[in-house]
Hints:
A: 74% helix, disordered C terminus, B: mainly alpha, MetI-like fold, 14 helices, globular
Amino acid sequence: MVMFPFFWLIHMSVKPDRDIFTFPPKLFFQPTADHYLALWKTDFRRSFMNSAVASVSTTLLSMLIGVPAAYALSRASFKADKQISLWILASRMAPPIAFTIPFFLIYRYLELLDTIAGLVIIYLTFNLSLVIWMMRAFFDGTPRSLEEAAWIDGASVWGGFLKIVLPISAPGLAATAIFCFLFSWNDFFLALILTRTQAMTAPVAVVNFMNYEGWEWGKIAAGGTMVMLPVVIFSLIVRKYLVRGLTAGAIKG
Amino acid sequence: MDQAKAKSIPVVETVVAARIEAKPLDRIQRRAYRLYLIPSLAVLITVTIAPTLFLLVTSFTPLNLIVPETVGDFSRPFSNYNLLLQDKRFHNSVWVQIKLSLATVSLQLLAGLAIALLLNIRTKFLEACRTIFLIPMVLPPIVVAIIWKVLYTPDISPVLWALRSLGFPAPSLITEPDLALWAIIIADVWEWFPFTMLMILASLQMMPEDPLEAARIDGANSWQLFFCIVLPFLRPALLVSGLFRLIDSIKAFPLIYILTDGGPGTVTEVTNYYAFIQAFNFSYLGFSSAITVAMVTATFLLSWWIIKIVGTKVEIE
């Protein structure tokens, strides 16, 4: 029941066009890569690359900015600690359209509409909070004694963080980065509004196949399968941390 | 907060030792920590607080990109909100939203609970199943929407075909005004029941065996065990996952965009979708901002409620 719809889409993507509309469905057919080949000849290829570039850049950027902040929040007891946590949580709860309208207006002015840079910036709204929220929990779970020993040996705070804390948090860093990637990759709403052609991402491109007369179901299924492929692979890699990441801030309608 | 303190207890000795040897270290540390935090706070202010304020300001203007004079027109700041109170289509969208949220959240809780209880029985089997059940939740929402579009489209739907060949009348759910919302509800429940299931499962695995044993010895049957012991124990998990889903249900977009486009008519047009149409189809950005401000307020009230119930440590593992 749960898996059937998922497999049906994959199976459609390798089914010859004439068989898609045949009922009762042919269970044995000659699998074809035609839909994928046809798809790769369209602008979908560029959209797929756009998605990859935007997701990877925003992941790197939010890790770079967010990880030290998460460490600081975990180790120091700031007076405003509670307020900062609440704020981070609130920005994850807010409906995306709340950010989309102002970003749309500002991007129009700054000419950032339909650019990958524009997407990377707006993805920070949820990715940065996600990094801080998740990494803080990981850092809370690592012992302080190691870095304190390093400080006594003369290491700087930054040195202790880079050489001691980060290496032992590697699994957490990897899991968090993958989550950032997934949430950006899965985004549809923001890309739909903030891009047109140049920076269009793969999810928007797939939906565009639905706008023509006589929908090309084979291509739609192939595109959908390609969009979900990285997601399924990465989810299997981080399945241990999946619950934590999704409850820390599952996004993205 | 208390947890963090408890964790640091074993290292108290080293901390004390470090402080005695090098007092200024503490100050250096604090300065360093502050330095690490500043970039994040600066970016967060720029990408979250500034836009929110901008949204609020926009909601006081009749901003319409097609009419340039509307930019920065604050002559009647509350006109959008007045309009909102009278707008039948907005009221309808709120009502659709309430129906959608209540139906999806309660069905997800039921499905999540049922499957979590099943999965909890056989522990060996569990790991494998867990991962499989997670798939709908991690799939890109747009792919979920496409999958269900296929299942609801008469020409190519294996489900509608199967129902028809078994002799059931199988209308295309998404084009029937009475059923379209159910089409969205079914797809949404499929997509998100793994979330409630995971939270409930995590809670179930922390449940102590003793009270169950004791009750069994006293002769309680399995229904009594479930309603008197298991269910009360799961209450916090049910509450938290339900509230999380409730908040997220306000954001529902891809399913509606792909499956029904808010239709037929406006029967599946939730508030979020209405705000989207006003802003990006009709270009009434000012009015749409007012709708969005109302939505954000509702979301924050709900979040505040969650935090009040479970504290800031909302993370459940």
